[in-house]
Amino acid sequence: MDAELAALASAGSTALVQAMATDAWAAMRDRIVRLYGRAREEEADQLDETRAELLAGDPEERIEAEDEAHAQLTRLLRENPKAAAELRSIVAEFAPLADGSPQVCNTVSGGVTDGVVLQSGRIDSLTVNAAPGTAQDHIDFRDGTFNGPAIGVQHNHYGAVSPTAQSAAADWPRITRLRRLAMGVHPTRRLAGEPTVPPYVTRDCDAELSGLVRSALLNGGLVVVTGQPLSGKTRTAWAALRRAVRDDARVHVAPRGTDLRDLPAQLRGRDREGTYVVWLDDLADHLGEHGLTAGLLAQLVHERILVVATMNDGDYDTHRFGGGPTSRVLGGAGTVQLSHDWSETELTRLALFDDPRLADAREWRGESGITQFLVLGPELWDKWRRARQGNPLGHLVVRAAVDLARCGITADIPQVLLRGTCAKYGELDLTDEDFDWALAWAAEPRNGVTGLLVRGEQPDTWRAYGSLVADAVRWPETEPVPDMVWGEAVAGARTHGLDTDTVVASFRAVMLPRADGRDLTAMYGLGALAHREGDVVEAESWHRKAADLGDLRSCNALGQILANRGAKAEAIHYLEIAAEAGMEDAYVTLGKLHRDRARHWLTKGAEAGHMEAVTYLNTLRAGTDVLEEETGQTE
């Protein structure tokens, strides 16, 4: 049973017993009976009997009644956690009626009263005249004298506590069960066999933080790790705590807005040999009247309880130096401060780990910090992937930037290249207005840190945030870069003076295995790349392999290469295949080759005295002269 439900059972039992002394009892009883779900008449009678015994004046009855109610509610919540919502509603409705709020007002001032007195709310001065030989208590009821038993029922979070509240700390979870806090960040995208989160890298402040934690474990106290957003506060604080305590330590993890005033009550009567820690993530959400106050902290220190908290730098400065009650809380705290910018020493430690996600963070984080990269990465990835359905324009622009980076363009991408790449997917017809809108959406910062796209140093340049590229490279389910985009990347790198060597090397690394598997597109691409780089021999080799396997583009390319080096007869064979497929430049080259071959053989005929050959040769020459005159081209 978690600490929250245990506290609810305690609050419910207290409210139930307190309500027995008020006019709200009948309504409270009916709600409790319905909550239990047992025979209503029998249960109501039993509760009325308990109330009668309480009102009869037995001083021990209140404790026994509260213990019994606590045990019943604990069993109920364990067996049916959904009952917690109704119990919270009951506590919210009836606890104020039983703790002295205006709905029920019983005033005793002065005089002498014989018999039982039940007082809920403020008790000023009370003198109890009990029978000789019985125990006497001074309850400080002002100006009132009472002859007979007196029961003072008061909703007091800091006073004497019943055994029901004292047992709550025993239900706090062991530290080894709190896996979410052990992660410190959201789980990163991981491959099979990888741990949920990367290993923890020692921060420069760890030695100081460990000293503060060990001291507070011995003497009690508050230790706060402050820092910028996403600087790794939670994981750093948790790592320090795990170094300091045994696996059997119990930790109270308080959700945001939890009422902390009963913590001392939960801790009294605990096993003094055990270790109990209060964990307050985002401390700013736990300050205030019902949260961690200077008085509450003093009680926890008195009990030698360690309180570990995290806090953003801005919140810490506001509360610490702004004066007021929260300033006193933080004034006595031990603090360390983290930055999302890692030192060179920290980066050196990071490099010692053989974890691809840490390596990605070091390589691809750009201007952001290591922890920012690790935390934001999964969120940005999900944001981008889900946009495919809800925002296809934004998804396409980001995909183009990611794919260009996968092609080897890790520098800032000129906007014109990004725009041209989007057109290569053939999915959407982007207008200029669409493109500008998609850019604005993609560049919108997430968590105040970064967008899916990041503006480059030069105007009108962009790049994908590094975690998107790293995840796309590592994740086996990522779609391959389309062949048309590879072509755009190679050409764009040359045109814009980018790192062409890296892009070419990346292209070869992808295409060579495909070509070895008789992938015609890869063969053609490698041939085209070799030809563009001036290696005609390699180009001819790749195109011949692909052409002989039936690739029409390579038939055309090989025919052009053969024609240029004078292998006209062989060239005609491949060009005719390409021309039959409708490739226009094959028409022209093939026509020229046939013209040249016709002139060659007609010349041979004319030289042999064949008059018809002379006639056709003259006609061919005349047509060639006219063509040259019209086009300005010569043989």
Please, could you describe this protein's structure?
Helix content is 56%, strand content 9%. The protein has 635 residues and is an alpha/beta fold. The protein has a 5-stranded parallel sheet. It has a 3-stranded parallel sheet with strand order 1-4-3, with no helix packed on it. Helix 15 (356-364) packs antiparallel against helix 20 (466-474) and helix 24 (536-548) crosses helix 25. It is elongated and about 145 Å long. The protein starts with a helix and ends with a helix.
User: Number of helix segments?
Assistant: 28
In whole angstroms, how far apart are the ends? 94 Å
Largest sheet descriptor: 5 strands, parallel
Mean pLDDT over the residues: 82
Share of residues in helices: 55-70%
Described by the principal axes of the CA atoms, the overall outline is elongated
- Rounded radius of gyration (Å): 41 Å
Structural class: alpha/beta
Overall number of strands? 13
Low-confidence sequence ranges: 97-167, 182-187
* Strand residues, percent: 5-15%
Strand order in space, largest sheet:
7-8-9-6-10
